[in-house]
Specification:
- The complex is a heterodimer of chains A (about 55) and B (about 500).
- With about 55 residues, chain A is mainly α.
- Chain A has three helices and no strands.
- The longest helix of chain A is centred in the last third of the chain and has 22 residues.
- Chain B has about 500 residues and is an alpha/beta fold.
- In chain B, the strands form seven sheets. In chain B, strands 1, 2, 5, 6, 7, 8, 20 and 21 form an eight-stranded mixed beta sheet that branches.
- In chain B, helix 1 packs parallel to helix 9.
- The radius of gyration of chain B is 22 Å and the shape is globular.
- Classes of the chains: A mainly alpha (about 55), B alpha/beta (about 500).
- The interface between A and B is medium-sized, with 33 and 36 residues.
């Protein structure tokens, strides 16, 4: 069965030795609800880092 | 009334000058000397370079903003410093040469009480034969996204390449660093993935062979020796994080490479193992190495003291430990805290203009003796934070006297938020959102990774793109000194 996300593994030796996200991980990257949650979390973390840096 | 002169109007210089003008009010004078008429939000040049933004969207005129802030603006470049004055005066001065304001080529001496060198880098294209034109500018063989003008040119070339692919002509893309001592891999990293994104949108991705060439000894070094971040419950190296993205997007990599020569359609390179090779391309964007802008310095007698004030690479010496020696001896405490020049206490450097004590990444060279390693990044958030700390110090010195406490902003105690775009689009875009704390690893405080893994993390997604997009508008709003600008952190 052809899995689109796994095709690149065979394109080079370098590619075959790393990790490539599967279909679910890729989908979550543009899932609006999940990304909105991540947006809030990343912003909070970045604000903490900014605060620690000043 | 005392006078502060700020050399440079980029992130560090603009931050220093605008905060100093706000804190000093009309009691003292702030002068900005910058050869540019426009301020440029450089991170968004990436989007100009793929035709997703215009030059006008990432730049604005400085004159009106400085007029609003009460800053004296001189569109000129600094040529030399006389920190002890000269035979006729004990007053320190900087010699400038106008590049605009209808005074092109005219020289002027500006006396100062305090000076902040925030010139940013010289884009040293000529360090690699064929990368430059032999006159200090970019050559014709490659493109660049270092300035808004360069990015517009890159965008036109990309459009031409896409047209060729639509007509069935396969294209080879080579993106990365144009020398073994480059920094700013992040900009090239963003550009290659934005190109990849645009090629997919244009339906021609299958017609493109994409390759990354870099002086990093491993993917994900980014000039910071790499980083370990929390991803999916694991603490992983940025090497795995970066390699995964390259493999997913079908972008091959060539690392540990010193680009030694560029010709039309071809680069020659040397690798860390000493081997040499060639790579052909149809479209190449190679970041040039950075150097100091070449300001000279003279003492009261007119003797050249450039070597006292500046490091050999042209960046200004500050309160860093420049004699740390071998890599094994490097410590976080080698990095400067106040950015005050050790010889002249009324002189500071901020942003890229300060000379770092040493690399952050492990030094590497080929068996032929060619150094191939990224130099330390000092752009973006660190530049802004350093610029603000220096402004604070100088203002205190001017208002409270020479015994005033100097403010500190060590890169070994400072984090950085880095959002690397991997394609633009409100619903289809992605970016690698990363924070690193601290920028310079401190292995005494954080044994193992050198960094606090609670605040060093990265992930790829639409949220990162939204943040990158918001930062674009937020920082341009702040730089224009619009209402509430001081509330927006650096």
């Amino acid at each position: 069965m052809k899995k689109e996300e796994e095709i690149n593994f065979q394109k080079s030796e370098d590619f075959s030795r790393t990790m490539i996200p599967g279909a679910f991980a890729r989908k979550m990257r543009t899932c609006l609800i999940w990304q909105f949650i991540r947006f809030v979390i990343i912003n909070v973390k970045m604000i903490i880092v900014v605060g620690k840096s000043h | 009334m005392a006078r502060l002169v700020v050399l440079g109007g980029g992130v560090a210089g603009h931050t220093t000058a605008t905060f100093a003008a706000k804190w000093l009010g009309s009691a003292h004078e702030v002068v900005v000397v910058t050869p540019n008429a426009k301020w440029n939000w450089i991170p968004s040049n990436i989007w100009v370079g793929v035709g997703q933004m215009t030059k006008e969207e990432v730049t604005f005129d400085l004159a009106s903003v400085y007029a609003k802030a009460g800053i004296t603006y001189k569109q000129a470049k600094a040529v030399s410093l006389n920190p002890e004055g000269n035979s006729s005066s004990d007053k320190a001065f900087v010699t400038i040469e106008y590049t605009g304001q209808d005074k092109d080529g005219t020289s002027e001496n500006i006396e100062y009480d305090y000076i902040v060198n925030a010139t940013g880098p010289k884009l040293n294209f000529d360090a690699t034969p064929g990368l430059g034109n032999g006159e200090g500018q970019m050559g014709n063989n490659t493109v660049s996204v270092c300035t808004a003008e360069h990015a517009v040119h890159a965008s036109h070339k990309l459009t031409e390449a896409i047209e060729k692919m639509k007509k069935g002509e396969r294209q080879r893309f080579l993106i990365g660093t144009g020398h073994g001592m480059c920094t700013c891999q992040g900009a090239a990293f963003e550009y290659i993935f934005n190109i990849e994104h645009e090629l997919r949108k244009a339906g021609v991705r299958e017609m493109a062979d994409m390759k990354w060439i870099s002086n990093e000894s491993f993917l994900g070094d980014f000039g910071m020796g790499g980083l370990h971040m929390k991803v999916g419950g694991y603490v992983v190296s940025s090497k795995l994080f970066a390699e995964s993205l390259f493999a997913e997007r079908d972008v091959e990599w060539l690392i540990g490479a010193h680009t030694s020569k560029v010709e039309a359609g071809k680069v020659e390179y040397e690798l860390l193992d000493g081997s040499k090779g060639e790579e052909e391309f149809d479209f190449a964007m190679l970041i040039p190495p950075f150097a100091g802008v070449g300001i000279k310095a003279y003492d009261k007698a007119g003797e050249d003291i450039t070597g006292t004030v500046f490091a050999p690479n042209g960046f200004m010496k500050v309160d860093a430990k420049y004699d740390a020696g071998a890599y094994e001896n490097w410590k976080a405490s080698d990095w400067p805290r106040t950015y005050q020049n050790p010889t002249y206490s009324n002189m500071f450097a901020a942003g890229i203009a300060f000379a770092p004590p040493h690399l952050i990444s492990k030094p590497m060279s080929s068996p032929n003796g060619t150094p191939i390693n990224p130099t330390p990044p000092r752009t973006g958030m660190p530049s802004g934070i350093i610029g603000k700390a220096v402004a604070h110090s100088v203002c205190d010195l001017m208002t409270k006297g020479e015994s005033a406490h100097l403010h500190e902003a060590s890169m070994a105690e400072m984090g950085a938020a880095c959002v690397a775009s991997a394609g633009k689009g409100i619903f289809t875009g992605t970016a690698a959102a990363m924070t690193v704390y601290p920028v310079v690893p401190d292995f005494e405080k954080y044994p193992g990774t050198g960094r606090d893994t609670d605040y060093t993390f990265g992930e790829i997604g639409l949220a990162g793109h939204w943040i990158k997009h918001i930062l674009h508008f937020l920082f341009i709003y702040k730089a224009k000194l619009n209402p509430g600008w001081t509330l927006i952190p650096e």
